[in-house]
Amino acid sequence: MTKKQEESNADNKMWVEKYRPNLLSDLIAHEQIIGTINKLVDANRLPHLLLYGPPGTGKTSTILAVARKMYGKNLASYVLELNASDERGIDVVRDQIKDFASTQKIFSTGFKLIILDEADHMTKDAQAALRRVMEQYTRNTRFCLICNYVNKIIPAVQSRCTRFRFAPLTKQQAISRISDIAQKENVECDAQGLEAIFRLSGGDMRKCLNILQSTTMSFGKVTEDNVHLTTGHPLRKESQLIVNWLFNLGFEEAFNNVLEMKNNKGLALVDIIHDLHSYILRMAINEKIQMFLMEKISDIEYALSFGTNEKLQLSALIGAFQIAKETHANKLDDVEKYMSVANYEV
Ligand SMILES: Nc1ncnc2c1ncn2[C@@H]1O[C@H](COP(=O)(O)OP(=O)(O)O)[C@@H](O)[C@H]1O
Ligand SMILES: [Mg+2]
Questions:
Q1: Fewer CB within a 10 Å sphere, N or C end of the chain?
Q2: Of the ligands numbered here, which is closest to the C-alpha atom of 166?
Q3: 279: CA distance to ligand 2 center in Å?
Q4: Other C-beta atoms within 10 Å of 253: how many?
Q5: Closest ligand by atom to 51 CA
Q6: Ligand 1 pocket at CB < 6 A
Q7: Atom of ligand 1 at shortest distance to CA of 28?
Q8: One digit per residue, pLDDT tens: the chain, 346 residues?
Q9: Sign of the CA dihedral 106, 109, 115, 119?
Q10: Pairwise CA distance, residues 15 & 188, whole Å
Q11: What CA–CA distance (Å, rounded) separates 23 from 70?
């Protein structure tokens, strides 16, 4: 780390919090949603809200910015934020929310806001209880439910809210935000490094900022290799080697080589599979074989998510490539052409 970076790290803040957008205008993407909510707030006609979508897309930031806009300094006395995924039994809804919702400020005419973050973790019973509470206090309270999976919210509650879906940020949006923040923190980044951060985050801005910060802490400079090393993801040259082994070696040798690399570099099979996916997509082979490999690697990924044995899954992976290889070789006389596929760039 450079001296400047050290100084700016001295405050020891997570960048996710340090760069949380405070104003609605600070948020990138979701122009339409923000425009609509803005209009509703200005007209003093905010309905109950249900914000849903994948993590790190700005749901919590949006509602906090709305609250700040509506209440300014008085935020604390007008907003109840229930955050933890626990403490969501039926009693909390009944007591805590009722207490807050039923007290009215003397002299004030506006409504209060109750934010239920991670509402999809509430029990069905608690959601059912919420339905009544929402109706009872509509006169002076608005609810904002936030969740990742909208289908985990009971229909009766859904129908009482105006729903907004937060889509993942696009590559351009995410990358321009990350490079802005990198500039403010005096971090040197190259284009491949920024791309790698986006690729590994899957459109989750929280992940993007965390990877950016941890890469800076470990290496001071953001390059593709540094990002991969920080996150334990295979380096590009390692992925290329693995692809080469899978295509060109027999079962036993390929298995031993991959296993050795996996152990030496501490790689997770699931990360290797994610890289393979982009190789398979680019392969110039029979579509059926391509589909076969896709299906196999998705099965393996699924199995790995349940904590199954990595060695066993690795042998399934190698086996799938052996079958693909043989099928292909039997149909084509020009085997060499097929083998050269393995040298494709990601
Ligand atoms: N649309 C966005 N514009 C700018 N920053 C964002 C956006 N979405 C997420 N972020 C960044 O990611 C972090 C997490 O956002 P958050 O609102 O908590 O996401 P969510 O509640 O959807 O999981 C924020 O601190 C912010 O830095
Ligand atoms: Mg959130």
A1: C
A2: 1
A3: 33
A4: 12
A5: 1
A6: 16, 19-21, 27-30, 55-61, 177, 205-206, 209
A7: 3
A8: 565 556 555 567 899 999 999 888 888 888 899 999 989 988 888 899 999 999 999 999 999 999 998 888 888 888 888 865 556 666 777 778 778 877 766 555 678 899 999 888 888 888 888 888 888 888 888 999 999 999 999 999 999 999 999 999 999 999 999 999 999 999 999 999 999 999 999 889 999 999 999 999 999 999 999 999 999 999 999 999 999 999 899 999 999 999 999 999 999 999 999 999 988 888 888 888 888 999 999 999 999 999 999 999 999 999 999 988 888 877 654 444 444 444 444 4
A9: positive
A10: 16
A11: 11
Give the residues across from 26 on adjacent strands. Answer: none
For ligand 1, atom 16, the nearest C-alpha belongs to 58
Contacts of 220 (CB under 8 A, 6+ apart): 1, 2, 5, 187, 188
Residue 117 CB-half CA count within 13 A: 15
Token digits for 99?
């207490």
Name the residue with tokens 């020009």. 334
- Residue that is written with structure tokens 């007209």 in the block: 43
